[in-house]
Amino acid sequence: MSAFEPTIQTAEKRAVWAWRPFALTLPALVLLAAVIGYPLLTIVLRSLSEPAWGVQNYAWFFGAPVNLAVLQRTFSISAWVTLVCVVCAYPYAYLMTAVGPRMRLILVLCVLIPFWVSGVVRTLSWVILLQDSGVINSLLRSAGFAGIRLIRTQTGVVIGMAQVLLPFMILPLYSVMKGIDLRLVQAARSLGARPSRAFLTVYLPLSLPGVYAGAIIVFILALGFYITPALLGGPRSTMLSTLVQTQVLSLLQWGRGGAMGVVLLVTTFLLLALAAPVMRSRHREAGRR
Amino acid sequence: MLKSKLAGLGAVLALGMLTTTAFAQEKPVAGEVKEGSLKGKTLTFVSYGGIYQDGQVAALKEFVDKSGVKLLNDGPTEIAKLQAQVESGNVTWDVVDTGDLPPYVHCGKLFQKLDLSKLDVSKIPEGQVGECSVPAMNYGVVLMYNKEKYKDNPPKNWADFFDAEKFPGVRALDGSGDPTGGLLEQAFKVAGGDPKAMTAADIDKALDVIRKLGPDTIYWKTGAESQQLAESGEADMLMMWTGRAMTAVKNGAKYAPAWQDWLVVMDQMTIPVGVKDTDAAYALLNAYLGKESQEILAQQTSYTPINNDAKPKVDDSVAAFLTNTPERQKQGYKQNIKFWVENFPVAQEKWSALMAGN
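Structure tokens for the assembled complex are given below, as produced in the milestone run.
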């Protein structure tokens, strides 16, 4: 950067230079303001102004038990999906760092190819696998077991959503893991640590930033899921987005739909705010070691 | 001299007025449109896509060719989108196909009150023209049951459908969106009520009958899903749209209909408030109602035509599910539209609570 900068600057010039990076992000900022900021503002306004000014839509939301039950369910399903994703993605991402380049390419493709297929198609494939007369239950029955109900249950929804969201967990994890110096683990081993000990005290803490990044992305995306719960779930796995859809598209209650969206957004922010200090402290700890 | 000239002038004027009024009062005939009358104009037609909208477009082909109009297609119909257009004063949807109730719920607000002098509604089945709508087609919601499961003792009506003790098995209901008024009325009858005297509070009683079917009950989200449930045998008894029931049976599903009290439903054709060229929209509607158009529609989609003269050429599998035969007309059950329009928000609220597992 010094190549472009004169050695002696006036304060004014320095200020101009400091603004350069921001100027570069201007197109993105304008786009964000137009396609996210403005609609979001409209939604907040409508939630407070329709049919009249006031908080009646929020009063309605918190007054109806079904809304609270579904809100709670939305968070619990998302949490389960995140957990399943972490458990499945962690060893997979580790394997990606451990194998040779050709095998790694295959592993990357295994993640990316389903990722490129439309979510609807993947969800419909899950219908075929999970339904009572589907592949899984046919196999179970032909092996002499009783069939299990998977479709139209929360389990089915969690399975389908976890598969759709898995790449969002694997990729951040992999990008962190490939930066971890494996010699640190070897050093721990050479100093007498058992493999499990070396993993828990050296590797795991170093990989945690990837876990956090992936978990946050997966969790937030899961909160807004619509198609998968609609197709794989039943009434007992309805998520908030379905209720928003009913309010807006069927009842034309934009205010109520907006209020639901705002509640979901604010609750998400609150949860993230609660989680942030934990993540930061762990981060520092990992850095110290 | 002057007097006779004036008289002549008067006669000419009177004649002129007579011809213009005669022209204005020229009765439209369903299915007809003037050659080249809409040249250079564009109409946007909105419906639900799939083979249905394809069939509608095919039904309108002659209208397009003859009038010279440019027909654009959009969809699927979403009342919220239409509302946004009407509110912003920028209505781009000229003719909109909707479900049963919206034209009644939003009549005069989102949908224009129809000027029936601009349409020929004489061939439409009785009682189907609304203040803001003409029918787009008829179909039914029919009880389909698994023939292999129930064998010699099949369910015969909705009372059997709601009787899980006498007829064990998995039920599948329409969970695609709005509640089906006719089904709730049938459920209320099972609860011992009289649908004709139903009140808003009775909706709960009807819903309790549905709740009693238990947690295994399936609420299908799309017509395709209902068809899949029958073809794979996932559900033993289903409420199905006749078009989907017909296709499922055609594809080999071993299911049969119980026609008693099949629920009469229809799609509606509407003109939104604030369209740019109302007369062009009327011309499209009038052409759509014609005999040939309705025959094409029925042949392509298997939905029942809404022109009494229409005689579509369909094979037996399709004909078995057409609902305009005298026998079917006798068995059909019409929902209390007025009640459901008045109680639409309440019903929807309670229905979506049921759909959300409460």
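Residues 254-288 of chain A form the longest helix (35 residues). The two ends of chain A are 32 Å apart (CA to CA). Further analysis is deferred to the final report.
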